[in-house]
């Protein structure tokens, strides 16, 4: 008999559960690793529903703020989709800087036209970028990074209750996203800089040799040399420092997600 009041309470708040499911689903669309096309859609839907039920029963979400009309509820659904997508996209945005750095490295080594299929995202990615991305993705799962992101997302329902996200007309949020893009490019360059700088020195030396010995075929010597040096640096410098790269990327992603949540939260929910 004790289950009857719980069942009645569930039916009275089924709209709240649906709104939670909307935000969770939008978040998981961009969540690193979990958003990969290699993961079955059925599993992602089941995981989104289980996570929504856990949030619904936690007590953090009890009601939703919206105009009590059909159009108001539809607008609330749209707002929750945007809220979840913004929080998930910042993670997707930051973690994909590794692939962006891989483009720089492949271009320097002469692998610009060589791409491979990424089994997670189902897109063509550079060789070096795919190697780094797969390694960092594995570290994200093994070191509990996904649990940290899920915990922050779980708390977002307390800081940003349903229907209270400040997104439309939020100029600071747009400015933050633009500065995140700038930091994205800078961090990608920092990751690829050891290889890019070394290959640039090789190009300078080859240029001097061509001027000194015009008969030398720089293409026959230069391309294999850059590939050899580039691969040596990848396996002797980039791969051994993958842990440090992961820590930097994870810290930037976590800080970005927390800043986005704080930026869209109502002012009375933000602690000084």
Structural overview:
With 272 residues, this protein is mainly alpha-helical. The chain has a two-stranded antiparallel ribbon. The two termini are 46 Å apart. The relative contact order is 0.13. Helices cover 74% and strands 2% of the residues. It has helices at residues 3-12, 14-30, 41-58, 70-95, 97-109, 127-142, 145-159, 171-212, 218-238, 242-264; strands spanning 115-117, 124-126. It has 10 helices and 2 strands; from the N terminus they run αααααββααααα. α2 crosses α3 (41-58).
Keywords for this entry:
single chain; 272 residues; mainly alpha; two-stranded antiparallel sheet; 10 helices; 2 strands; 74% helix
Topology:
Layout: H1 3-12, H2 14-30, H3 41-58, H4 70-95, H5 97-109, E1 115-117, E2 124-126, H6 127-142, H7 145-159, H8 171-212, H9 218-238, H10 242-264
Helix pairs in contact: 2-3, 2-4, 4-10, 5-6, 5-8, 6-10, 7-10, 8-9, 8-10
Q: What about the largest sheet?
A: 2 strands, antiparallel
Helix content: over 70%
Give the beta-strand count. 2
> Helix-strand pattern, N to C?
HHHHHEEHHHHH
- Rg (CA only): 24 Å
Which structural class should the secondary elements be placed in? mainly alpha
Strand order of the largest sheet: 1-2
- What is the molecular shape? elongated
Summarize the structure.
The protein has helices at residues 3-12, 14-30, 41-58, 70-95, 97-109, 127-142, 145-159, 171-212, 218-238, 242-264; strands at 115-117, 124-126.
């Amino acid at each position: 008999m004790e289950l009857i009041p719980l069942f009645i309470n569930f039916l009275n708040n089924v709209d709240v559960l649906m709104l939670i499911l909307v935000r969770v689903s939008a978040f998981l669309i961009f969540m690193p690793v979990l958003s990969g096309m290699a993961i079955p859609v059925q599993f992602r839907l089941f995981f989104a529903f289980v996570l929504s039920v856990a949030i619904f029963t936690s007590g953090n979400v009890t009601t939703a703020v919206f105009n009590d009309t059909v159009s108001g509820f539809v607008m609330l659904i749209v707002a929750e989709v945007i809220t979840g997508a913004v929080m998930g996209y910042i993670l997707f945005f930051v973690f994909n800087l590794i692939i962006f750095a891989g483009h720089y490295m492949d271009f320097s080594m002469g692998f610009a036209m060589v791409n491979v299929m990424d089994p997670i995202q189902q897109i063509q990615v550079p060789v070096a970028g795919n190697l780094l991305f797969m390694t960092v993705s594995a570290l994200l799962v093994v070191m509990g990074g996904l649990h940290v992101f899920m915990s922050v997302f779980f708390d977002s329902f307390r800081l940003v209750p349903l229907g209270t996200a400040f997104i439309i007309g939020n100029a600071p949020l747009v400015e933050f996203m633009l500065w995140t893009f700038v930091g994205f490019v800078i961090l990608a360059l920092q990751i690829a800089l050891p290889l890019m700088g070394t290959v640039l020195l090789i190009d300078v030396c080859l240029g001097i040799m061509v001027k000194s010995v015009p008969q030398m075929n720089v293409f026959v010597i230069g391309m294999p040399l850059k590939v050899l040096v580039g691969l040596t640096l990848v396996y002797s410098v980039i791969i051994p420092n993958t842990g440090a790269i992961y820590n930097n990327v994870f810290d930037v992603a976590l800080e970005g997600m927390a800043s986005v949540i704080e930026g869209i939260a109502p002012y009375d929910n933000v602690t000084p």
